Amino acid sequence: MSKLIFEKDIKGSNKFSLPPCDVPQVEISQHIPEKYLRQEELNLPELSEIETVRHFTELSHQAYGVDDGFYPLGSCTMKYNPKINEWAASLPGFTGLHPYQPVDTVQGAMELMYNTQEMLCEITGMDAMTLQPAAGAHGEMTGVMTIKAYHQRNKDVKRTKIIVPDSAHGTNPASAHVVGYEVVEVKSDDRGLVDIDDLREKMNDEVAGFMLTNPNTLGLFEEHIKDIAAIVHNAGGLLYYDGANLNAVMGVSRPGDMGFDIVHLNLHKTFSTPHGGGGPGSGPVGVKAFLADFLPIPVVVKEADKYIFDYDRPLSIGKIKEFYGNFGVVIKTYAYLRSLGAEGIREASQNAVLNANYIRNKLKDYYYIPFDRLCKHEFVASSRNQVKENGVTTLDVAKRLMDFGYHPPTVYFPLIVEEALMIEPTETESKERLDTFIDALVEIAREAKEKPELVKSAPHTTIIKRVDEVTAARKPVVKWED
Amino acid sequence: MNIPKELLYTNDHEWLKVDGDKAYIGITDYAQHSMGDIVFVELPEVDTEIAVGESLVVIESVKAVSSVFSPISGTILEANEELEESPESLNEDPYTNYIVAITISNKEELKELLSADEYEKICKEEE
User: Fold this and answer.
1) Do A53 and A134 reside in the same domain of the chain?
2) Residues A32 and A160 in one domain
3) Which chain A residues contact residue B41 at CB under 8 A?
4) What residues does each domain of chain B span?
5) Radius of gyration of chain B measured on its C-alpha atoms
6) b/e map of A46-79 (b: 16 or more CB within 10 Å)?
């Protein structure tokens, strides 16, 4: 394992010389009161420029991203991010902007925001969109706040519950809870879909809304979505679309047409902007017309041929992020949408679905597939049989995949599938790439039978070998000490 | 699979031991085994009132975070604070290490619970 930068400290190695200063030097204590001045010395490592560069270059070699290889992380759409998006986002006309500039001087940026909103409305079947939320869960919170504002506006204050399915992303109950709702779980039926009877039983005049992902986290399309929408609406609730899996249906079917009232999108997943490395996300929220007044201020609107920030919205839930969201991510999304066009967006979804079904079919003789029928952009396999035979778990299979040069898929999610291994290939992978990945998983299934210890002790070829996750979780060391 | 005869059980793999007017509640051997290494237990506050089906405790394992739902309604009398320091004791001996003790406010609710034999059948079906 690499040393921390603090351990590489060589005193005096970062010295530099500057030309003589041409303005008089002043003591800092002349300008800042004594009590605000730091007393002890700043504890920063001292390294020369070249050693600093080497340190971070070494770290960068240990990272794994979609530019390094296949990244089939179920539920997270780690698709390739075309480099033209980066070009667009780094155009000086965009990077030189200041958010406090007068709107007259940033009309181009506002036009881009407005057009992105419009395109996202078209894709989702919504009437209005805000680009403000910083990422997916922030979008969820914005959406749930909108649900709350709507019911409060109607003086319908006994609605204290939000329903989520037992296959939901963990962020759904978390977002509902943060906004002050009690979370009620609805079961899945034996086909992996929302149990309609259970939903009917739990839906009443105390329920503010139902948060649903479609296709769901098993990669299965909720076939009864129209019935679900009717049950929720007839009881006075709103239907919320978690856009995490939009990559399966964009350009093909629209949440708005399915009966959803609110959607959030993850531009950093579905619309090809890098994520997973701590970079900024973007979680726009779209609503049907009857909810448009509740969207966060300001909203970018077009008046005649001019774009303005509309702050005059008394019913708005208010501002939920400084300025106007993560604008750089929006530029990349705009570039992606314009370069693919309507046909390309549709084709991307179709290929994502085709790729997932191809892998599912090729793996079903080697791994248990709990819902083995046509899936959307992802599917869930299970190492249940491997556990029974030789005690090889999904965690072991995932670790072993790293030896084959792949990023492991999502594991142990959704919670309703035992030993879940959730695979999402995305549309940008070739058949050849999918085949080598399938070969690796088939080989691991053979190893699990013939030499299970090899799989149980994986990974063997990575820089960091098998880590002790249990101790790391029970007794985490979160601070470096000399 | 260890399923003590004298306890009552739920479909969600909890056990319940009746002791006069109160009941001790924990998770079963099957539950600890399927959750894997337990790394954190979030206990409720003593004196909290709880209804059937409400979340009683949150248990975090290396695989997932799960809620334990209350099988009966009542008031929480004790929370086993030792679990905060050593959550692994739920893996080691899930029956000695209870999670909470709760008052039994409605004896009728106990009739809904399963006997050891009934519970064993459910475990077999799930396997």
Assistant:
1) no
2) no
3) none
4) 12-121
5) 13
6) ebeeebbeebeeeeeeeebebeeebbbbbbbbbb
Give which of A377, A357, A327, A361 is closest to A442, Cα–Cα.
A361
For A53-104, what is each residue's pLDDT tens digit?
Answer: 999 999 988 888 898 999 999 888 999 999 999 999 999 999 999 999 999 9
Same domain, A44 and A191: no
Per the CB < 8 Å rule, is B64 touching A473? no
Chain B residue with the nearest C-alpha to that of A388: B127
**Does residue A464 sit within a domain?**
no
% chain A with pLDDT above 90: 86
pLDDT of A277: 64
What's the ipTM? 0.76
Whether the CB of B64 is below 8 Å from some CB of chain A: the reply is: yes
- Residue B65 contacts A, CB cutoff 8 Å: yes
Report the distance separating Cα B67 and Cα B31, nearest Å: 12
Same domain, A261 and A118: yes
Nearest to A473 among B34, B39, B66 (CB): B39
pLDDT tens digits, residue range A137-193? 999 999 999 999 999 999 999 999 999 999 999 999 999 999 999 999 999 999 999
Which pair of tokens denotes residue B46?
Answer: 């003593």
Helix (H, G, I), strand (E, B) or coil at A324: coil
Q: What is the mean pLDDT of residues A239-247?
A: 97
Residue A425, min C-alpha distance to chain B (Å): 22
Residue B37 and residue A413: Cβ atoms within 8 Å? no
Residues of A in contact with B64 (CB under 8 A): 412-413, 415
A470–B39 C-beta distance less than 8 A: yes
pLDDT digits (tens, 9 = 90+) for A53-65: 999 999 988 888 8
Q: How far is CA A7 from the centre of its chain?
A: 34
What does the alpha-carbon distance between residue A49 and residue B36 come to, in Å, rounded to a whole number? Answer: 46
Which one of B34, B65, B87 has the shortest CB-CB distance to A474?
A: B87
In this structure, the answer to whether residues A113 and A221 fall within a common structural domain is yes
Same-domain status, A167 and A278? yes
Q: Is residue A95 part of a domain?
A: yes
B82 touches A: beta carbon within 8 Å? no
Distance from C-alpha of A312 to C-alpha of B32, rounded to nearest angstrom: 55
B12 and chain A: CB distance < 8 Å anywhere?
Answer: no
How many distinct structural domains can be found in chain A?
2
> Taking the domain B12-121, which CATH number applies?
2.40.50.100
Q: Determine the residue of chain A that is closest to B36 in CA distance.
A: A470
Q: Give the domain CATH number at A315.
A: 3.40.640.10
Between the alpha carbon of residue A416 and those of residues A110, A137, A419, B67, B110, the distances in Å are: 44, 22, 9, 13, 27
Is residue A449, in this structure, part of any structural domain at all? no
What is the span of the domain harbouring residue A44? Answer: 5-62
Q: Are both A163 and A210 inside the same structural domain?
A: yes
